Amino acid sequence: MKHKMMITTLACSLCLALAATPSYAENTAQFELVASSAESVNGEFTVTLKGQNIKDLYAYEVKLDIDANKVEIIKADTEITGFSVSPMVKNNEVTYAHTKIGQVDGEKGNLDIGTITFKAKKAGTTNIKWNSVKIVDHHLSSQTFTPNESIRFTKIFSDLADHWAKADIMLMVDKKVVEGMDDDHFAPDTNVTRAQFATLLTKALNLQAVSGQNPFEDVTSGSWYEETVKKAYAAGLINGIADNKFAPEQNITREEMTAMLLRAKGYATGTKVEDMPVTGSIHFSDETAVSEWAKKTVALAVDSGLMNGRTEQEFAPQEQASRAEAVVVLKRLTGGLK
Q1: In contact, 250 and 191? CB cutoff 8 Å
Q2: 295: part of which helix (H) or strand (E)?
Q3: pLDDT digits (tens, 9 = 90+) for 170-226
Q4: Who contacts 30 (Cβ-Cβ below 8 Å, separation ≥6)?
Q5: Can you tell me the distance from the alpha carbon of 301 to that of 258, in angstroms, rounded to the nearest whole number?
Q6: CA-CA distance, 218 to 235, in Å (whole number)?
Q7: What is the pLDDT of residue 211?
């Protein structure tokens, strides 16, 4: 019972001290927020709250901004002896406090005020911002600083750790254009269907719902891609493989992806593919493998930098496109529309 009363008294004393009127005449202390890493697969990272030119730190209260939908707090620590109030999260603000105990001097110099370990809930980038720190000296006078320090951390999918398209994929994940296959896997090298790529285009261009009949008999009513295929068709982004067949579940080839990509660029810029001038030509050893109907779009895509060859020598027009390739060309498309 005595121990519980002592803790309660200390907590109350800390709160009263932190509410005291500022008395420092000179603002010389500086603060820095440092992350243990910029990215990781498991999503766990630690931020260290650093102070420089500290004169007399007996107690402190720090406030950080987070996105509680993206991260959670695992633990908080400090090497300063005393009693800590566990981090509290309210309205995306973290409050963490600590006080020394007894009639002792405060900490001085350059020191680590504390560390907080977070865990990202899902793949993507999150931002941690240090809004304020209130310092109480051993006389119980206080001063508040606004560091405005921030760090960014990215939880990446486990199968993207060393992948060539990691940066572009994670950028498009943050833009909510693409998602993982599950919380931990993106499957970058699996194939993309025609319906999937049409869906990605509608998201990237933010196409709105349309009325009208479904023009393809193989796009079944109630299927997950029915509405996105209708949007893409209405915007002129897609054609069928026949008059009334879209082949939504068929893996898309690189030349088919190129054609959809150029039509999307035409839609966004107001210039039809037919009116886009070709200033270059196809310079790949397999250019004869490019279908006649796709020669212009392939030339346009390569010339504009929207598409590269699968290697320096080969475009691989009849090869099936991967999820990574699809995301990278979407990133180039949306980046070029700014």
Answers
A1: no
A2: helix 295-304
A3: 999 999 999 999 989 999 999 999 999 999 999 999 999 888 788 899 999 999 999
A4: 51, 52, 53
A5: 7
A6: 19
A7: 82
Instruction: Assign a CATH topology to domain 2-154.
Output: Immunoglobulin-like (2.60.40)
Q: What is the pLDDT of residues 288-302, one digit of tens each?
A: 999 999 999 999 999
Q: What distance in Å separates the CA atoms of residue 176 and residue 203, rounded to the nearest whole number?
A: 8
Kindly tell me the burial class for residue 194, based on how many C-beta atoms sit within 10 Å of its own C-beta (0-12, 13-18, 19 or more).
buried
Please state, rounded to an integer, the average pLDDT across all residues of the chain: 91
Single-letter amino acid code for the residue at 314: E
Residues 6 or more apart whose CB falls under 8 angstroms from that of 302 comprise 280, 282, 308, 309, 315
Pairing of strands 149-155, 39-40: parallel
Mapped onto helix, strand or coil, the DSSP state of residue 277 is coil
* Alpha carbon separation from 193 to 4, 190, 207 (Å, rounded): 63, 10, 19
Residue 42 amino acid letter: N
Tokens of 198: 């049409």
Q: Kind and range of the H or E element at 326?
A: helix 323-336
Residue 52 carries which side chain, given as an amino acid letter? Q
DSSP 292: G
Q: Which of 155, 180, 121 is nearest to 38 (CA)?
A: 155
Residue extents of the structural domains in the chain: 2-154, 158-336
Give 2-6's long-range contacts (Cβ < 8 A, gap of 24+).
none
Q: At what angle do helices 254-269 and 295-304 cross, to 10 degrees?
A: 70
Span 242-253, mean pLDDT? 94
